[in-house]
Amino acid sequence: FLDVSDISVSSVVAKSSAGEVPLDWDIGGTVENIGSKLTIYLPTKTNDDLTLVITYETSPKASALQWLTPEQTFGKKHPYLFSQCQAIHARSILPCQDTPAVKFTYNATLHHPKEVTGLMSAIRVESTPGVSKFQQKTPIPSYLLAIVVGALVSKPIGPISSVWAEQEQIDEAAEEFSQTADFIAKAEEICGPYVWERYDLLVMPPSFPFGGMENPCLTFVTPTLLAGDKSLATVVAHEIAHSWTGNLVTNRNFEHFWLNEGFTVFVEGKIVGRLSGNASRDFHALHGLSELSDCIKTQLADTPELTKLVVDLSECGPDDAFSTVPYIKGSTFLRYLEDLFGGPAKFEPFFRAYLNRFKYQSVLTNDFKQMLYEWFREDPKNEELLERIDWDLWLFGEGMPPVIPSYDRSMLEACLAHAALWAENDLDTIRDSPLLKQKLVSVQLIEFLAQLLEKKTIVDLTGEKVALLGETYGFSTTKNAELRFRFVRLYIRARLIDKMDDILAFANSNFRMKFVRPVYKELGAWPQARSIAIENYNRVKDQMMTVCAYTVAKDLGISDASA
Fold first, then answer.
1. What keywords is this UniProt entry annotated with (predicted)?
2. Looking at the domain that runs over 61-243, which CATH code has it been given?
3. 126 catalytic per annotation
4. Is 255 a catalytic residue?
């Protein structure tokens, strides 16, 4: 039994030492947005190894593949192809057991036009113009299969790392991600040896739907990370951490996605802490909590069951359940456990041992829980601590995490003070405030805007106030996508219909779901803007990846069929 989606199979043969035999097969059990089952009837009498050869072709609309015209690239000369298989889209590229419970190694030969470069989530072992060969010797789940073909160039950024991008962005990208080798070194201190041989980065076209995708040997990242000041490079620390949490030890199914993402955010925070100090690590965690609060109030407002750490996907596909919950609620749970058992000195040896025990395997929450008990029970003093953990509440409770660790709030306090100033006062009071002389760094500016958007009321929220805010902090002219994202949401909050062009310009500048989904959802809830938003969506949806177009249509409350 193999998973397929939109694939047309022309033949299946079994090869053995005795020769080739054609096999019977059929495709059935089609479920919308999930795919179909390819059943292959194997020979019953064989005492030999069998090689299956499936001849097939993919659909031009394969959900894992994005085909860009030259106009949709930076260079405007060559078309571009990229894939995004997570969670269940590998089945649209090849018949496979498309579940993270199964891992495989792979070899691939890729034929492509001579003037472009082909790369995969593997080591490139041979390359001649028009043909590239790859080998992935470490077993991976199907969602980590990846392919990209485009006018790409590379620049070294570390002993085992290069960055790939179109020529127009390569220097900027190499500068933005110059800390990559430091991130890898710190990740190895926390998690153990790096097993994947290479760690390259690829800066994607703007239609890439995620912040990053941890494809082994070749992380894909959104161009929205190119802020010019390395302030968003922690996404790279996150993808590096996945080399252990997710890629080496993998969730057995996507109901336990927190075992990939919560663990990865936890390690990402530790990398930040080792490089920038504990106040930065804690600020990073607090910022995550405000993103979680925003997500629960907006994206998941109508589906509280999806705010559980372990979700039930029996009636719901993993794309529909995707949110920041497994990331932030999951990492908060791990931090709670680390603090409970006495801090990093006690918890990190366990964490490394867990990764080492389950490497190359796929696990469920219970595997982690059992090992935690085995490990910490060796000291009888921990018995009382283990009894304190309310697993049921953490794993199956709805809403925000049941316990918020006592984080260092020093970097956050300034953000809260600025947010209070702008939310509670008129323009004259704001202009005279000594607070404005206090400089906030990039990550604090993002949090300040996030906190302002969280306020139930903002006094005199007029075009004039928003304009002053933009001038004061440089929000109107910033290149930083995280700042622009929150600033255009303030336009929506203030109902500034005359800023519609700016709002749509941002929504059309990238199709990263973290940014476009809340913008469309909020535009959809603003009666004056709703029809403009839907019209804009219909104009650009073909430039979006399937998963993005599908979820935005749901956010707008239009089924994609009618769109």
1. Cytoplasm, Glycoprotein, GPI-anchor, Hydrolase, Lipoprotein, Membrane, Metal-binding, Metalloprotease, Protease, Zinc
2. 3.30.2010.30
3. no
4. no
